[in-house]
Amino acid sequence: MKKNITLRAEWVIATLPLPQAIKLIVLEAVLAYIVNGYITEIADPQAAEVFATIKADYDAREAKRLERAEKRAAQKAQKA
Asked: What pTM did the predictor assign?
């Protein structure tokens, strides 16, 4: 489980067209995914699409972060 998370402004902006109750469902689903990898079933098609877009963005950013971390670890190992 992550200790720190970032809720990106563009993710919140993506939820703005949604009704308040649906927006909350999407943001809770995003938090559940970021914190523990749980994918929430979302019945509303528009909300599900927003969640899928946010999830894809998060996954891409996380992959880049892990790649940078691996490079740093490899460079550190070479110096040792």
From this structure: 0.86
